[in-house]
Amino acid sequence: MDAASLWSASDTVGRAVAVLLLAMSVATWVLIGWKSYTIWRVRRTLRVALPALWAANDWDAGRAALQRHDTEQVLLPLLDAARGAAAGLAAQLPEAARLTRPLRDTLHDVLGRLQWGQGLLASVGATAPFVGLLGTVWGIHQALQGLSGGGALSIDRIAGPVGEALIMTAAGLVVAIPAVMAYNAFGRLLAACEADLEGFAHDLRAGLA
Known about the structure:
By secondary structure, the protein is an all-alpha fold. It is 83% helix and 0% strand.
């Protein structure tokens, strides 16, 4: 049975489950494409911009180098935060503490941008199999109700509707598996980027203190 026949044979609940799984799948693949491109650009920035910064003669020249290479704005905000003037109570802190606070806050903001979407991937990976299972249970329930309407029971009458309902379970797994794999892969890549950014923040604190 093709998709059109399955859709026409489903009721409101079955169609709602199918639409939800489709939306989760589309969101997952769009997010995978966007995050893959973003993380690739960030890793390229770290590979190119950091050597350009440390090769500069002074901080102004280093900032200009970052402006040319930091396409994703992950390094330049840290440099600006470290060089910015402290105000209020922060100005009364020791020099090292005055650098630590803005660097920490800016680093959290940068990492938050990089990690955006990880929660969605985790949610899809965790819930899609159960959404598919819900569609299967509901489909089997509706199929058994139809069989109870009368007529002689046979394996053919049972196998067809139940087999169609089980497609929902397979669909849930098809949606969940890419989300889980992408979540794990992006987690490893983001951890490497986070280590580089934390090292850069530490170097800035040591160099400007």
